[in-house]
Amino acid sequence: MKKEEVEKLLHDKVEAGEHISPVLPEGIKNYLIDIDGTVTEDVPNEEPERMATCKPFPDALATLNKWYEEGHIITFFTSRTEDHREVTEEWLDRHGFKYHGLLMGKPRGGNYHWVDNHLVRATRYNGKFTDLIEKEVTIEVFDDGKHD
């Protein structure tokens, strides 16, 4: 899905004269992908000169571009700051990453606990990008008073 198609899909949703939050079509995933330590070596913000010269992980490039071609939305979400946007966009483009967006300023430090009114699935990168598989895991959720 091209950037223009994603923009149309995610904006201008109106019901009963009011804008509503969009819901993606069945089977389309909205991937938020970290950069450092996930698609390339772990480059800290304190060493921005390495951001221009690091190499992408080949499996990450191939897998993400495949997901893009399958129609999924790819957005990079990085702890790099706005000061690093230009070098980051140039690096992504030079290495051929296909993506729809780039969000800068993700909180640093890890141990993320994302709270949202939309379904959130998290996948921890452990050294190799592949297609995702299903696996049962234990997660923390809000207490809704219904215990199984």
Q: How would you characterize this protein structure?
A:
This is Phosphoheptose isomerase. This protein is of the alpha/beta class and 148 residues long. Helix content is 20%, strand content 11%. It has 3 helices and 5 strands; from the N terminus they run αβββαβαβ. It has a 3-stranded parallel sheet with strand order 3-4-5. Strands 1-2 form a two-stranded antiparallel sheet. A hairpin with a 2-residue loop joins β1 and β2. The protein is globular and about 50 Å long. The mean pLDDT is 89.
- What Rg, in angstroms, do the CA atoms define? 17 Å
Ends apart, CA distance between termini: 40 Å
Biggest sheet, spatial arrangement of strands: 3-4-5
Whole-number mean pLDDT: 89
Low-confidence stretches: none
Give me the count of strands: 5
- Pattern of helices and strands: HEEEHEHE
Specify the structural class: alpha/beta
Helical residue percent band: 10-25%
Please give the count of helices: 3
Q: What's the story with the biggest beta sheet?
A: 3 strands, parallel
Approximate strand percentage: 5-15%
The shape is: globular
Keywords: Isomerase
Protein name: Phosphoheptose isomerase
Pfam families: LNS2_PITM1-3
GO molecular function, one term: isomerase activity
